[in-house]
Specification:
Helix content is 66%, strand content 0%. By secondary structure, it is mostly helical. The protein has one domain.
Length: 89
């Protein structure tokens, strides 16, 4: 099944990328005690705080989309125009 990504909003792509980066970073912290963001940008620097803030805002955006904006998100991610499949009895 092929998904139609032409209607996906650019913000959704950025948010997804930031959440993946944040998830990988937290996985590294949890499993290996290694903070990739701090290693790249420095511990407690303005840039690392900006990255953390953007990841947090991305999570809030997704919470909003999953609760209030769920219908619109479904239309962006799913191909709702696909023909219905026959049901076997």
């Amino acid at each position: 099944m092929r998904r139609n990504l032409s209607g996906m909003h650019w913000l959704d792509i950025i948010v997804a990328a930031l959440l993946i980066i944040g998830g990988i970073n937290w996985g590294l912290v949890g499993f290996f005690e290694f903070n990739l963001v701090a290693a790249i940008f420095g511990e407690g620097t303005a840039m690392s705080r900006v990255i953390y803030a953007l990841v947090g805002l991305s999570a809030l955006y997704e919470i909003f989309e999953y609760t209030v904006g769920f219908r619109s998100m479904q239309h962006r991610w799913c191909d709702l125009e696909a023909p219905a499949t026959s049901v076997r009895h």
